[in-house]
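step 4 of 6: structure.
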Amino acid sequence: MIVDGSLPASIAQAARVLATGGLVAFPTETVYGLGADAGSDAAVAGIFAAKGRPSDHPLIVHVPDAQSAERFAASIPPLARRLMQAFWPGPLTLILPRRPDMAGAAAGGQSTVGLRCPAHPVAHALLLACAGATPPVHGLAAPSANRFGRVSPTTAAHVAAELSQDLLVLDGGATPVGIESAIVDCTRGPPVLLRPGTLSREAIEQACGERLRLPEEMAGDAPRASGTLESHYAPDAKVRLMDGRSLQAALDVLGEDAGTVAVYARAPVRTRVARLRRMPDDAVETARQLFAVLRDFDAAGVKLIWVEAPPATPEWEGVRDRLRRAAAS
Ligand code: TXA
Ligand code: MG
């Protein structure tokens, strides 16, 4: 059931559902999340069931402010404090050592916890209402509100199309950022970028005063992160990345058979039959529309999605990452 997330009555209803162990989908500035009381193992089990996600994959815990992070984190290293100060509320998740008695199921049993303070007004109102509910809910465990392995939802309609009709969905319109938060692991000494988002690597490094490492640079086992699985964020159609010229050449070869092909490109592309969407020249705007474009192509029943590879510049890192994963399946 979709309700207007800007109405206080909707927020109150959602907080009641969450405080009694239920699930609610809500908008964040990145994508829609599927939330449950992070302090209730039973409520969190409902998320894994609804998503069809393995229960050892850790979820992000959403908090109303930086202070609330202390409830879940055993300690907050100075670099993490600097990142919170610079980017919270906002599209940045920090992996921190977990208080052993907090959010065990949400963290997938790991000794760490992913924490994020979202900037969306509906998410913020919901988190505040939850903190004031009886019994109080101090953090919302919430993965993206899609079935496991699928494209994240950026509208309430996307959520409703993919999850149960009975699920309460707070509608906050299309999410302004469009791809998931950047994830920085602060538990391994130097900061490690586990998942790029829309905050540039440079901005994150400037704020924390250290170079961001790649997961591959770190010795030992990488932490499990489903968002870091190769074939994640995948639509039904097969996605291929090409430069503009190869894309045109491939379309020319297909000719009239290009009817099952969809194209998402910045370069002007000529075809009479393929479905075309123009990719914006701007990375921010592309991130905002990317998942909806992939969903639209799927809904149109195309078999192939040919995407012009984005520029290899820093501001496109998050979009490149999601497209590469979509193409890996
Ligand atoms: O923008 C976002 O981050 C959205 C919105 C709803 O906040 N959430 C999201 O959640 O993308 P999800 O579950 O789809 O992706 C969370 C990622 C996963 O790759 C998960 O493995 C990783 O965060 N993660 C969470 N806790 C972790 C931990 N303790 N250690 C390592 N990775 C963790
Ligand atoms: Mg996800």
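step 5 of 6: annotate
 - The chain has two domains: 2-217, 238-327.
 - Residues 145 and 156 are 10 Å apart (CA to CA).
step 6 of 6: archive
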